[in-house]
Amino acid sequence: MNLTISGHHLEVTPAIREYVQNKLERITRHFDHVIDTHVFLAIDNLTEKEKRQKAEINLQVSGKILHVASAAQDLYAAIDTLMDRLDRQVLKHKSMLQNHNHVAHKRMPDNGEAAAA
Fold it and tell me: Deepest in the core among 15, 16, 26, 59, taking most CB within 10 A?
């Protein structure tokens, strides 16, 4: 898995990098077929009193790119909600891949035999 962490108006410290990597371990524990991951962390100055911390992620899996974004007052809280949302999307994607609710071909009635009888 390729991991890219970038920051906008923010220096990505080793503590933040390690925190994101530890949170991503939960995602890779559920779904191992992750190809590429881009994490984007930003601080938006909306007003002088309020700073809004944003976290976004693009997770590329086989055949699909999952995008999740979150915002909070604290960067670590934004990363936590981001990973919770991403975890739900990954589990949903995994269940869609493993959905076996189709009828087997040998169990399907053959239309040629029904018309001949």
Answer: 59
